[in-house]
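Subject: mismatched residue count in predicted assembly?

I count 1042 residues in my input, but I want to confirm that the predicted structure covers every chain. Input:
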Amino acid sequence: MRMSLLKTWRDFKVRKAQFSALIILVALGIASYVAFITSYNNLNASADFANEQLKLADFTVRIIGAPRGVVEKVRHVNGVRAVEGRLIVDTGLDLTEEDQAQARIIGIPADRELAVNDIILLEGSPIQKGDSRTCLLQNKFAEETGKGIGDTLTIRVSGEKKILRISGIAASPEYFFAMRQKGEIPIPKEFAVIFMEQREVEKFFGRPSTYNDFAVRVIDVADRSLVIDKVEDVLEPYRIVETVKREDQPSNFSLREEIKQNEQIANTMPTLILFISALALYIALSRLVQSQRGEIGLAKALGYSDGQILVQYLLFALFIALAGSGLGIVLGQYMAKAITQMYIDLLNIPILKHQLYPEVIIGAVVLSTVFCLLAGLVPALASARLLPVQAMRFDPNLTLTKGRVTLIERLFGWILPSTLTFRMPIRNISRARKRSAYTVIGIAFSLILTVATWSMFDSIDYMMKRQFDEIERYDMVAVFGREITNAQVLTVDKWKGVENVQPALQVPVMLEGPGTQHEGIVTAVWPDASFHGFTIIEGEDFATVFKKNGLIIPEGIAKKLEVEVGDILMADTPFIDEKEALKVMAVSDEQLGTPMFTSLEQSKKLIRSGTIVYNSLYLDVDQRWEKNVEEQLHDLPGIIQVQMISTFKAVFEDYMAFMYFFGAVLFGFAFAMAFIVIYNTFTANVIERTREIATMMTIGEDRSHLALMITLENLILAMVGIPFGIYLGIEAMSAMFESMTSEAYTLKAALYVQSYFGIIGSIMIILLLSEIPPILRIFRINLAEAIKTLD
Amino acid sequence: MKAPVTQQATTTTDNIAVLRDVYKTYQMGEVEIHALREVDLEIRRGEFIAILGPSGSGKTTLLNLLGGIDTPSRGSIVIDGQDISGFNRKQLTILRREKIGFIFQFFNLIPTLTAKENVEYALELEARQGVKPKRDAATLLDMVGLKERLDHFPFQLSGGEQQRVAVARAIAKEPALILGDEPTGNLDFRMGKLVLKTLKEVNVAEGTTCIIVTHNMPIAQIADRIIHIRDGEVAEIETVENPVPPEDVSW
Ligand SMILES: Nc1ncnc2c1ncn2[C@@H]1O[C@H](COP(=O)(O)OP(=O)(O)OP(=O)(O)O)[C@@H](O)[C@H]1O
Ligand SMILES: [Mg+2]
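Triage response: the counts match. Full output below for your records.
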């Protein structure tokens, strides 16, 4: 054993650069594992912790309005642990003279802590009882608009402007992602969540002693759906608008979606990176065994047992595993902290939990040991199985099979340059097929991560372009809280700068499929509506669907509801008592959100109306007049919000920032790994041929020709490895996107033509860089020593 | 500027190699190993020289210095009229390419090249210096008795055949000096003699200077002079009155 250890250490020192590279490779794999899993755990823990600490409601019931006393009745429902009644009013807010935003005013008690949906005061002081002038502002909005303690907010109350003073900045688990609806993309500076004392909200909006929202927490053992039913029974007389469960709560839903995506990355990427590391290690150890055939034979002839030889090579693997995981764990912890911080900021979770997870550390060591030992096992077994005589003979791997010139030369000999400097690289490739295959695989695998990351960028870009150029074909949308008349539509159409107006009706619906339900918005449009670009996957074209009063749903929803074209869905809306049947006539390919469409004619039934009504306008606007049109829209009665595609785009880009952040991290990994894998393969190629190269140099070969020959050989191998790697990379990306596709996004892998050039270009640069050390090694060869050593 | 190697020697002497007060010292940590000490030597054009000595005496070291594979720690070495002791790497490469033919104990053919191509490779290297090769590989292999084996790869040839290819490779560029470090060390008796015979023929027919290292006394008897080395020093230079024809050597 001691002998083995000693020998392992000596062999290690001889190839220390190569083995250090392997250790770094394993460390990168382990670091990615530790970083991604830890940050994922951190994120989950932070989100859970925040929800728990802040007592996120198990469900909330929104009603038209009820006397405050009703809250007592809800509290006494069996299974209710706590309830908070609130008055919540949506209104407008003037940011500046021209800039409007949405505001949601939420009434809270000033004299006690909230028992459900608590808020956390990040800065400043709480609101004062009986002070109608102070409020708390949600942190993200404050951050985005630069509002701080002592600043004022101008809100609209029944057409009048009221000034509020900000006394504190707060975060609420209901509004980590400040959004009104599930699946919506939050635009932080367009939606302000403001907390005021309940009585003051009542006074402001002239709704004395009223609650319109009940947030409920359920006791642990209770069956939530039963509790919901009972609470709904209590609130039924006050006209229930909707009941939202915790998992459908918009902010919480988005947060969970984000975490889910992170989980996918946390699961796939480290596996991929570890796999590449293991493969590189396998190749390196295989070649070590091959290059030490002579020594192995000698050791056996001297009486070493197969077991001792096996242990000797496994010790290598173990050493690399332990060193690699040690380094990787340290590196991974630092990265995890940075990634978690980045996430927490991005997702606006006020509480950060970063900790060491013993199971992750143990997992890392075990993973690395298992991967490395597996990688080392085959070559180690091969070494143990070598017979002494066989071992000391010529390595069959280094001869040209069958004693014939290569196929390439036989086929293309007549056009290939006839100099041997050119032919030797070609022969080198085909004489050692296994080694060439290793090199090709090495190059291909090192590319997977690069391609996958590149494809991630392209896919996001493609998705954005498609979304904003092909799908959303309007410049702004205005949503109203009450119906708009045809006359109003015509007026808007005449405004300066307005090029086109298309009215529509957005109806909240609950669709019931054979197994599941889906809650969302159906947009009702005229058959000739063109503001949304459809890609119909199955069924009739959109105009026909609308003429026939059918329904178009996205693929994801069709899958979720388990329906096909031709099936009937039952739709429930807040405006009807009996469910309405909707026929699915087409399935569309949407990528962002889950927009569903039907005809305006059909919508009459959904809102129990005799005539067609609209509540939203889709406008094409001359860019120069955008601001003016937006302002004019804000002045229309009943306006709830005006969304501009340009803002949306900007926010979306912001929102995707974390993808780019990940991309950068992954590129770092990808390039580092590509370099190490290629460097290792090339170095081994050179080491194995040291005597041959020394002979060539002795008889007068010069350095530049040698460098050229090595480069040529590597380039030929790269020509095979690169397409293979690109193929594998795209496959890996598609698989990952497939698993990341959710209700909110449909992700499809894309890779632009120019990216191929980028990938090939960068891999070439890496290839040429990683060739430098082995070539320098050649230049340093001590001829006198190298020519006399027996292979 | 042209490298001085390519210039013709200004003074043509009868000596192909002259060593003056040559030392080669290896530093092994604290210890200095004197592989060669105070070597003074003159080797004439067309001579066949054997270097004889026990293991570790410095034979290979001496040969390496003559062939520009290694550089002396002290002293001067003149090869074909050029003082190579101060040569840089590039100059040494060109020296080896143009003037020296090497034959190794383990043959050291390029395994990916056929017999013919191995010889052609030496010609290709020579051609890089702008010298148009005067011979072709097939003729050279014919000279060493291998005209039937042109397209065979090294692994398809016996040791003796491989070594004869190596001889053909060494003489291809018409070197000023052929250096062989135990060229028969790895061959059986019959094959060894064949290789020695080929070398001797080249030496006689072309007047190429040959220096071979051996620790085998009978083999040394084919040479015109034998340089005895002991402990890194030239112990004796023996002139062989009647060199034995390789055919008659026995060991
Ligand atoms: N690179 C080196 N570093 C240190 N010492 C060396 C080196 N090369 C050779 N020597 C020493 O120099 C001396 C001469 O070595 P050399 O190889 O010339 O012997 P040799 O006469 O060729 O022996 P053999 O007949 O065994 O081949 C020896 O003592 C050897 O150990
Ligand atoms: Mg020797």
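Chain B has one domain: 46-72+84-248. Marking this ticket as 'not a bug'.
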